[in-house]
Design brief:
Elements lengths: L3 H30 L2 H22 L5 H20 L3 H14 L11 H8 L6 H11 L5 H7 L4 H17 L9 H23 L9 H15 L4 H15 L24 H16 L5 H12 L7 H11 L6 H13 L3 H10 L8 H13 L3 H14 L3 H13 L1
């Protein structure tokens, strides 16, 4: 008879295995079963079986190996129940062969395929993020829903639609070929960085630390695909930003820009790793957007103050690679910090219609107008930025800036 303490220990052991190995298990199952949904259903059934078997028989020698073998058995039952066609017959044959092995090989690490599939450009950005968090990181639909302020049912539907689109669109479960590599890698890194920024601005009591999840994904990409400077640059950018996280909000609850942060709160060991990763990437002499953004972040942390001339130079280099309105806003701010106020205001004024509902645009324009001595225009822009701000910390920061006028 299983005691309550033994039951709790088994649950904790299963949670630990799934937290550590779920991505690898899902990657192996998806590759062989040809379906996200089949893989997820099989792993869920295997996990339920583990609770009863492990409670009765104790933990197996290799819990991940036990889970994947049982998942294949569950998938085989399901494939046979679904009927016959060429795809299912091939999957049945493959699973039978795998189950016939007395001592199967270690679970191959095919998470790179999994990540590229989850982050396919055919999927909406929000769906890419949600599917990556669910499939690779193991967050459940409820956890992901809270991060996006959605209901669990809505997020469940989004995840289901994403899996269906992958199946019906014939999206290959594969690492992209060389001719598609750069564009597809940027889609992956953009998804991972969006996970990071979502965590960076999340409430301090959020149960899951998305910054840590994003750093885990970036390190995983770096390990699975070494010597790729853009992966190294993205990891450097996240490390440098994460090093400042404790100083991001003041004791009064207001956002603090890097130039004004209490540097004693920066985690110097994380900063040092970020700088080392950036230097390694730049030495490969294949500069890309994430490397340039990481270099900008490093310049924001220069001693004793941000290196604005170098930041302007870097934004000028970034613009041809990412000619987006957001990059143009940041370029304009860098121009203003270097005394080029007329050019900065001209750039911002030209972006007004495109970014009318974008809070950081109004905040940037307010700051530049204030620097130019246009107090009334700055006050109006601050009011617009405050009205659009989502985070209370941003509202407090903007109100304080407006108060200085």
């Amino acid at each position: 008879m299983t005691t309550p303490a033994q039951g709790i220990a088994v649950v904790q052991a299963l949670e630990t295995v799934l937290r550590r190995d779920r991505g690898r298990l899902m990657a192996a199952l998806t590759h062989r079963l040809g379906s996200f949904q089949r893989a997820e259903d099989a792993l869920q059934e295997a996990s339920l079986s583990a609770l009863s078997h492990w409670s009765r028989d104790g933990l197996p020698q290799s819990p991940p190996g036990w889970l994947i073998k049982v998942a294949f058995r569950k998938a085989l039952d399901q494939l046979r129940a679904e009927g016959r066609d060429g795809e299912r017959e091939a999957a049945v044959q493959l699973v039978n062969e795998l189950l016939g092995q007395d001592d199967p090989a270690p679970i191959p690490d095919e998470r790179l395929r999994l990540i590229f599939t989850c982050c396919h450009p055919a999927l909406e950005t929000k769906s890419r993020v949600a599917l990556t968090l669910r499939t690779v990181c193991g967050l459940n639909a409820g956890e992901i829903a809270r991060l996006f302020l959605d209901s669990e049912a809505t997020m469940g539907q989004r995840l289901s639609r994403a899996k269906t689109k992958i199946a019906k669109s014939g999206i290959a479960y594969a690492v992209p070929p060389p001719e598609q590599w750069d564009d597809r890698l940027q889609a992956v890194l953009t998804t991972v960085y969006l996970i990071f920024t979502t965590g960076y601005t999340a409430a301090p009591d959020e149960a899951r630390d998305l910054c840590s999840e994003a750093l885990f994904l970036a390190r995983l990409l770096d390990a699975l695909c070494p010597e790729q400077p853009e992966i190294e640059g993205a990891l450097a950018l996240m490390l440098l930003t994460d090093a400042r996280r404790a100083a991001r909000v003041s004791t009064c609850g207001a956002t603090v820009p890097p130039a004004e942060q209490d540097r004693r709160l920066w985690r110097r060991e994380v900063e040092a790793e970020g700088r080392q990763r950036l230097e390694t990437a730049l030495r490969r002499k294949r500069a890309g957007p994430f490397q340039i953004k990481a270099a900008i972040s490093a310049c924001q942390m220069a001693e004793p103050a941000p290196d604005w001339p170098q930041i302007l130079h870097l934004y000028t280099a970034l613009l041809p690679l990412e000619p987006t309105p957001v990059v143009r806003v940041n370029h304009a701010v860098a121009m203003a910090e270097n005394g080029l106020l007329a050019a900065a205001l001209a750039t911002l004024n030209a972006l007004h219609d495109a970014l009318e509902d974008f809070q950081p645009f109004h905040a940037a324009r307010a700051a530049v107008l204030a620097m130019a001595g246009q107090t009334e225009g700055a006050r109006v822009a601050y009011d617009q930025a405050i009205a659009l701000a989502i985070q209370e910390s941003d509202r407090r920061f903007l109100a304080e800036r407006a108060g200085r006028l």
